[in-house]
Each structure stands twice: as structure tokens, then as C-alpha cells.
Design brief:
By secondary structure, the chain is mainly α. The protein has helices spanning 2-19, 23-39, 43-56, 74-91, 95-105, 127-130, 137-163, 169-194, 199-214, 218-236, 244-263, 267-284, 292-307, 311-328. It has 14 helices and no strands. The two termini are 34 Å apart.
Length: 332
């Protein structure tokens, strides 16, 4: 049902992105279409939609006729487009494009400014900014929030990508520490802006848990994952939420819990957590186990079964991993 709703929404948004006379309205439609495509894991199509929105928002501000429409503020839309581009670029492995978009959000500087400071993104400064109305305080606050996400979340994701190519252990630790510092800062800002029970706070707690795990701080990582789980359960009201995006976050949190338990050698609890992860991951693929994330989790299940002395069970799991990996490789 959710996939049908997303498909119907996407069709309407794509029609609006082409047919609306207002370029700003077309940009809004492209932004929303990009979000739907992202939720369906169509990352390149999502990037194309966000890039088109950015292109449509390249001017100095809304046209005279658009000023009479009830549209989101131009600066907010532009910042949102850049943030979405940066996020998808990281997922696609394009660290350079992600860094460039993050720099543009921050006004062209890599150094984060003090919380509360505001400067329009490049292209909305100087004489261009003067042609726009002064930003209302609530819009300034929203843009500052987007900038905080860029500074702390996107740049942390970039650091995680770069850690894969770190030349020595010291560099890995430095990157992981910077990621943790970023998520600690973003967690404080998100709780202030959104409250303690907002699902975004749950997401940040999960990413913070990942950062702690990479630093081998397993007990604090577990506490961060459990806090994330509590926030998400408060948000969804059910451990089996109908929304795909919520199930994706649940699967990420449970995988983090399982890994922390696994590395603490609490094997029976780790096995249960991995099984819960698999239930969620398989639900995200429509009941199919043919996915990279499922293979990764099954590999860990096999290792845990081996550690528990269940050799036959471990072999059975690894045979299933081979079957799934063969299907992923097209039967080769």
C-alpha cells in the first residue's frame, strides 16, 4: 500500500515539476519528487530531481508574480536543495560533490560558524540578498537548523567515507572522534530545536551509536542505540511500523544493537538482535532475502552461531549466504 501511495505521489509531483508555470513551484515539486525517489532507494533519479530544483532556484529570488503565491521562502528552498544534494552525493560515493554542496550551504567556508549566526548561501548575498525581504525569524531558525545538519551530519558522513581510505590507525581514530563530536553537537541542537522525542533525534542517536562503536566504546554505543530505539518506539507507537522509512531506521538501530552485543561476546542476545534485524530488512524488500544488507547480517548470524558452538547451524546460514550472494551476482 505504501509503495502504491509513493508511486501515485511521485507521478503527480513529476507532472507538477514539468507543468507548473511558476519556476519556484516547479522547484518545490522537484524537491518533493526527489524525497519520494530517495525513499524508494532510486538515488540517481533522486539526485537528478534535486539538481533540477537547484537549477530552478539559481536566480536572485522569486519573480514578481510568484511573490503573491504562498510558497516556502526562497532561501529555505535553496538551502534544502543543497542539503539534499549533499546527502545523496555521499550515498553515491561522490564525496567531492557532497563537500562542495556543504561548503555552499555554509556560505563558502568549511569552518562552521557559531550557532545562531546566519549568512545566506552563495548566490543570495550582496546585492542579490538586498532584493529579498528580510528573513523572518522562524525562517532564519529553520535555515540554521539545515546548516547544522550539513555541518555535523553531512560532513560526518563524508568523514566516514574517507575513513575507508585512511592511511594509518591514528587517522582512523581522528576521523571517528571528529564524527562523534559532530553528532554530539547535532544531538544538542536537534533536542533544542525539535524536542527529545522527535524521530530525527532518534536517527542522530543511532548515528552517534555508530560513531561510538567505531571507537570501540561498546557500552556507550549500546546506550545510544537503546535511546534511539526508545525515541522511535515513542514516535511510531509500534515496534512494527507501517512506514518504510521508519522500518529502515528500526533495522539500522537493531543492527547496531546486535553488533555491540556481538563484540561484547553476549552471543545469545546478539543472535536475537540479528534475527530482529533480518525480519525488518526482509520486510523492506517485500519478503525477499536477496539484498546486500541481508547478506551482511546473515554473515554475522553465522559467526555468532559458530561462537555458540552450533556448527551445523552456522554452516546452514553460510550456505544461505552463498545462495543469496549468487543471486545478487546474477547467478554467476
Amino acid at each position: 500500500d505504501e509503495e502504491r501511495r509513493l508511486g501515485a505521489s511521485l507521478a503527480l509531483l513529476q507532472e507538477a515539476s514539468q507543468g507548473a508555470q511558476s519556476s519556484t513551484l516547479r522547484a518545490v515539486a522537484n524537491l518533493n519528487a526527489g524525497v519520494v525517489l530517495y525513499r524508494r532507494n532510486r538515488l540517481r533519479d533522486s539526485m537528478a530531481a534535486f539538481a533540477e530544483a537547484r537549477k530552478l532556484l539559481a536566480g536572485d529570488g522569486p519573480s514578481e508574480c510568484e511573490k503573491f503565491l504562498d510558497l516556502p521562502h526562497y532561501s529555505y528552498l535553496k538551502t534544502g536543495a543543497l542539503l539534499n544534494i549533499a546527502t545523496v552525493a555521499v550515498r553515491l560515493g561522490d564525496v567531492q560533490s557532497a563537500s562542495e554542496a556543504a561548503d555552499e550551504i555554509d556560505g563558502g567556508t568549511k569552518k562552521p560558524r557559531a550557532v545562531g549566526a546566519y549568512r545566506p548561501p552563495r548566490g543570495l548575498s550582496g546585492s542579490s540578498a538586498a532584493s529579498l525581504k528580510p528573513l523572518p525569524s522562524h525562517i532564519r531558525r529553520r535555515i540554521q537548523w539545515l546548516r547544522s545538519v550539513s555541518t555535523h551530519h553531512v560532513r560526518s558522513l563524508i568523514l566516514v567515507r574517507q575513513a575507508a581510505t585512511a592511511v594509518n590507525e591514528r587517522e582512523e581514530v581522528d576521523n571517528a572522534t571528529a564524527v562523534l563530536d559532530g553528532y554530539n553537537s547535532l544531538l544538542a541542537a536537534s533536542r533544542k530545536e525539535l524536542g527529545h522525542t522527535h524521530p530525527i533525534v532518534g536517527s542522530i542517536l543511532c548515528y552517534r551509536g555508530d560513531a561510538l562503536f567505531e571507537l570501540r566504546r561498546l557500552h556507550p554505543a549500546m546506550l545510544s542505540y537503546l535511546a534511539a530505539l526508545k525515541v522511535m518506539e515513542s514516535h511510531t507507537g509500534s515496534p512494527d511500523p507501517p512506514r518504510r522509512s521508519d522500518r529502515m531506521m528500526y533495522s539500522k538501530i537493531w543492527y547496531g544493537i546486535a553488533r555491540a552485543l556481538h563484540d561484547r561476546e553476549e552471543f545469545p542476545d546478539a543472535l536475537r538482535a540479528y534475527q530482529r534485524t533480518l525480519e525488518l530488512q526482509i520486510s523492506l524488500t517485500g519478503g525477499s532475502d536477496v539484498s546486500v544488507s541481508v547478506v551482511q547480517t546473515f554473515c554475522n548470524v553465522g559467526r555468532v552461531r559458530h561462537a555458540l558452538g552450533d556448527i551445523e547451524g552456522s554452516l546452514e546460514v553460510h550456505r544461505r549466504v552463498v545462495r543469496i550472494a549468487t543471486a545478487l551476482a546474477g547467478g554467476r
